[in-house]
NADH-quinone oxidoreductase subunit H
Amino acid sequence: MTYSAFFTIILTPLVILGLATMLTWVERRLLGLWQDRHGPNRVGPGGMFQAVADGTKILFKQDWIPPFADRGVFILAPVIGMMTGLLPFAVIPVTMGMGIAGDMNVGLLFILGMMGLGVYAVVLAGWASNSKYALLGGMRAAAQMISYEVFMGLSLLGVVMMAGSFSLHDIVAAQAGLWFIIPQCLGFGVFMLAGIAQTHRLPFDLPEGENELGAGFHTEYSGMKLGMFFIAEYAGIVLVSSLVTTLYLGGWRGPFLPPALWFALKAGAMVVFFILLRASLPRPRYDQLMALGWKILLPLSLFNVMATGTILMLRAS
């Protein structure tokens, strides 16, 4: 292993953790701007050190485990959430030569697999807490995440068919002439909705609906274990934004600017879009969320697959 590869392996998780931490400040500042109020503005210039203050506070909070909880599983759940949130970044290509795992020929399947394993974190957290609110939140999360994994996978079939590969490098290379967001606009819409549901962010944060379930699956958590769930959530936002950039927005491709800067600008715009959704949309009922997936997104994603396959066959003939 070369020194550059070693430092890449060490630095990438640190960068992702730093981004996830700073996103808490960015989100609150943007929410304040859009909702015509002050965001954090006391700690540091523009409140920039608020994330550091929050992280320090949660680090020194009492690490309490309820006596009625299943101790081993209770501790394991946030670890699973953290790991499944960070591991997919190993195959995300920021530029042609910047990435931990390099050009993995099944990179997209690896990411979908890791995102699928993330459901164990919330289910185990809800079950191990031995609390009604936490268990209901965990069951909601299981149904929501497993259902929307189906639509996410189907929405990406069009991209894979057009690129002819599961390699993220090949998918970016296939967008040299035209970004896939144009021919795959329907798949992009389905993927975005599925990504929001997978990260259980507003308006699809029903597993954590505070007006119904307290805090949902992590109601009984405190201290750094609660912080690990928060970091996993914000890492999920960065991951879905990076995937949208790679699969639909041409990845690092762009004129004049350095490739890494193009990737950062595109992914940053998607993160801002995630935050804008939280500021502007109400939370639907749970039955409405599931109906949206199975009655609307499933037929649309299947239609997108059939339309893409038909067009590719006609072009080849």
Notes: The chain has one domain: 12-26+33-43+66-316. The mean pLDDT is 85. The CA atoms of residues 34 and 123 lie 34 Å apart.
